[in-house]
Write a structure and sequence with these properties.
Shape: elongated
Structural class: mainly alpha
Largest sheet: none
Radius of gyration: 16 Å
Distance between the termini: 54 Å
Number of strands: 0
Length: 105
């Protein structure tokens, strides 16, 4: 794997991991009743996820322009990490909504 692919792979893993951690913090804050802080954490998570997605978009554009991408376990892992983080982020939003409803009753 060349240096650019390593940068892309670890960029996806790092930013997706940070986004997932922020989404988890959002759930934790919502559980404590801090809904405004939870929503801020979700927004931070989304902003970080955009950075991870930009790396993925770079890969897609390279392939679309005819540049072959060698598959590696690390690249597959990065894509898996991105998708699970995106799913977790969506679920975190649902949890925040749920905690908000529970706290207003």
């Amino acid at each position: 794997m060349d240096e650019k692919m390593i940068e892309i792979t670890f960029g996806i893993i790092g930013f997706a991991g940070d986004a997932k951690a922020l989404a988890f913090e959002a759930i934790d804050e919502a559980k404590k009743g801090n809904i405004d802080i939870a929503r801020e954490k979700l927004e931070e998570s989304k902003a970080v996820m955009v950075k991870a997605h930009k790396f993925q978009t770079e890969l897609i554009q390279k392939e679309a322009s005819g540049e072959k991408t060698d598959m590696s376990v690390m690249l597959v892992h990065s894509q898996d990490h991105l998708m699970t983080s995106m799913t977790f982020q969506q679920l975190a939003g649902e949890f925040v909504d749920l905690y908000e409803r529970l706290n207003t009753k």
